[in-house]
Amino acid sequence: GDTPVGGYVAHKEQITDLLSFVASLETLGIRGFALSLNDNVATLYLGKVKNANAPKIMWNIDDNYSTIGSNLSSALSVEPMKSEVFDEAKELDYIDLRYEGKVYYKLKE
Q1: Residue 107 forms beta bridges with which residues?
Q2: CA distance 34 to 46
Q3: Between 96 and 82, residue with greater pLDDT
Q4: Which residue in 13, 45, 72, 98 has its CB near the most CB atoms, within 10 A?
Q5: Whether the predicted pLDDT of 1 surpasses 80
Q6: Dihedral sign (CA 4, 32, 24, 90)
Q7: CB under 8 Å to 95, separation ≥6 — which residues?
Q8: pTM
């Protein structure tokens, strides 16, 4: 059912790892304003301003954070992703880390 506002987080043992991972993304220049946990998927909404259409990064809560972090770091260091993700003229829609060993991303139309 619906979890009430102020309800518990089912993944409390993983919350520390989760928050550490989010903090580690800042070293890649990735900052978020909101973190959503839905079933097994974490979604970090990016940017400094709360915006429903903000770009986002999604990953599986149960994944190995050092692995997905290094996959993301590697992907961001090569073209074309390196230029496109941080290009102000091109707006990022999402980065998806839910598929093992792969980093998908999409730019907004």
Answers
A1: 92
A2: 8
A3: 96
A4: 72
A5: no
A6: positive
A7: 55, 56, 57, 58, 72, 85, 103, 104, 105
A8: 0.84
